[in-house]
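Database export, one record per block. Field names are fixed; values are copied verbatim from the stored entry.
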Amino acid sequence: MELLNDMALFVEVVKAKGFRGAAEAVGVPNSTLSRRISALEKAIGLRLLHRTTRKVELTEAGQIYYQRCRRIVDEARLAHEQLGEMLAQPTGVLRASLPVDFSVTYLAPLIAEFANRYPGLTFDFDLTPRRSDLVSEPFDVAIRMGAPENSQLIARHLASLQARLYASPGYLQRAGEPQTPAELAGHECLSMLKSGAANWVLNKGSETAQVAVSGRFTLNNVGMIRRLATLDMGIMLMPEEIAADDVATGKLRRILPEWHGAPLPVYAITETRLIPAKTQRFIEFLRERLGQRG
């Protein structure tokens, strides 16, 4: 049992990237924590950490040991949770990496609902456009739009979002409203990460139309595309959930209503299948609520 405790302390040191942060997290004096890790290294016969005055880093042996220890510690924690009340009312800090625009415009009210359902939880959210490293960073889960890039991680499908075509009344009054997909080629179109031109693939039942569209703006931010569309700058192809608020207020209008783009999948990504109750409940909740709106 003492070995398992020391393994858990070692995992906390790695997660905190230092003894001081780990000591605060587990409520153990810094000196005691350092002594326990040294004893663990002595028992193993290998150095697990490189210690400097500024930080600690894993040795090659430490990296291997950490990957094993983390799973063992997770399994032990889950065993306790499944026997206690935490499974019904999870507690602790839920750390999640979230897509910026989708979270601000659509997930926020769902997260508020989840927080009200589980008052014992606190939340640490990271909203950045970068792809977080779930192995080296202390996230419980990452919500991602689009196909998973890392096959070593565990991806749980939450929903598929249907992309539709939208434009502002002001733009349509100035440029006219396209009546067929082919007419999009003559319009200002707002696209993601394309230089000058892009191909939009649209579907209507069994029909498929591929249109080479172009525009004056090259963008890599969903929120900026949405904002420019409301400012009469062009047509956007975007999931309904992103455009819903602006459609409701009349800032955007759906065009070519029978046509839609390819569904955009949304996934919950975790490093392991051994997820604690707080993460499990969060994923289940989002799957349930996103599925209702799909």
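Remark 1: The radius of gyration is 24 Å.
Remark 2: The chain has three domains: 2-83, 86-161+265-293, 163-262.
End of record.
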